[in-house]
Amino acid sequence: MYYASLLCVNYYREQSDLILKNLIDTNININISIFYEKQDTYKTIKELTYHIGNIGVELKENNQNKQDIDIAAFSYNDAKYIRKEMQINNEEMYYMYIYLSVFSKDKKELEYLLNKVEGMTQSRGIQTRRAYFREEQAYLSTLPIMQNHVDLKNVTKRNILTSGIVATYPFISSSLFDENGIFIGTNIYNNSMVFIDRYNTSKYKNANMCIFGTSGARKIILYKTVNIKK
Asked: What count of other Cβ atoms lies within 10 Å of the Cβ of residue 142?
């Protein structure tokens, strides 16, 4: 079995959806590890205040070029925003680390899956870096042994507020499952079983269904199956 790992090093500033949803829904062999480290609120606010004061002095100096001023102003506004959220909205700050390990029995397939996962993460605003010379540490960090290696932490550390952690919630499912439903097949996206109770009036407005498929796809068999009445 061959493994290759990706380190998530940056994310979109604003997330309106679960950033790991497409990875969890896929049927690719992949291990995902997420670590959170809660920071001391008093110490964090104190450091932010000191940081804001230093940058404020730098912004008043005239010997900096335009790029330096823009970067300093960006950092200054970020620090003020984080401090405001922690002081007024009772947010807490965490350090977050996300690691992805893809595995396969074939090297060529592994490279294909790795490229596919990289494309999926980029589409969700996640910037990744391959774990060159850190493959062993990354592999161990994605095992359920609660090991977050220091060599990886220095590369992937990212601060995040409590409200932002919601976007990394990993326990989601796009399966179609009704408790008293009839098994009609598997989901092509994540291989989950599909059970539908089309006569459940509390969930569906009516029992009507529309079935599409190519010739020989056994639409009639599916039609007869789902029309079994209780």
From this structure: 21
